[in-house]
């Protein structure tokens, strides 16, 4: 059986995901043809054991949330964060379609390293191509360039290109009260268009207490910064989209099993594409 078929076999039993533009089946040819290569790679890494706990940061329209909910089962728990109003509404519909409401708690909030309010930049009016390319002001050092690019795009279906959103962090007592009784957090998946490092800084207690696997998209060549920060917490880089030549790579980190051991320098060098 080919590796591509293996990837999509995981999705058997999931109902189609509905969007304003199409009804998408996780395992149909549409996904194989249109999904980015790195997303097909991430699909294999974003997993949750039966009865496990996972956090989906930047849940978008529920693509990975529904997968995690099915894998975790009714005894599991999935926390899903999505700040964009339209994506959040579709996320709720998809959870309903996939009978996932019992074990998924959703938040229309952006995760970062602080509590407060932020401004969400909406890329190009939420078209099918870029409904996930939104980011919160102040989330990364490349914001001036990115914000100007977004602002100059002509909105297609959104009256405004920026909206106010609630901002919070994973180590906040509200979320720790949900995780601590279970004594586990198996996975944190992050796709926040450049705010990944801030999300991690706001989750240091969670990372230290539960040692979850971390799967994230890497924006603006921030792999070195992410690797340095997670190394300081005892994590090692296991895989990166740069190893497969992806222009918009992902990265997978796990807590080192041997105390005092950092990521293998040779693997890190290869991950940087040198």
Layout of SSEs?
Blueprint: H1 3-9, E1 17-18, E2 23-24, H2 29-34, H3 37-45, E3 53-57, H4 63-72, E4 77-81, H5 85-97, E5 104-107, E6 110-111, E7 116-121, E8 135-136, H6 143-152, E9 162-168, H7 173-179, E10 187-190, H8 196-201, H9 204-210, E11 213-217, H10 223-232, E12 235-240, E13 250-255, H11 265-271
Parallel strand pairs: 3-4, 3-10, 4-5, 6-9, 10-11
Antiparallel strand pairs: 1-2, 7-8, 7-9, 11-13, 12-13
Can you describe what's shown?
The protein has helices at residues 3-9, 29-34, 37-45, 63-72, 85-97, 143-152, 173-179, 196-201, 204-210, 223-232, 265-271, and strands at 17-18, 23-24, 53-57, 77-81, 104-107, 110-111, 116-121, 135-136, 162-168, 187-190, 213-217, 235-240, 250-255. It has 274 residues and is α/β, with parallel strands linked by helices. The strands form 3 sheets. A 7-stranded mixed beta sheet has the order 5-4-3-10-11-13-12, sandwiched between helices. A 4-stranded mixed beta sheet has the order 6-9-7-8. It has a two-stranded antiparallel sheet with strand order 1-2. Strand 4, helix 5 (85-97) and strand 5 form a beta-alpha-beta unit. The protein is globular and about 40 Å long.
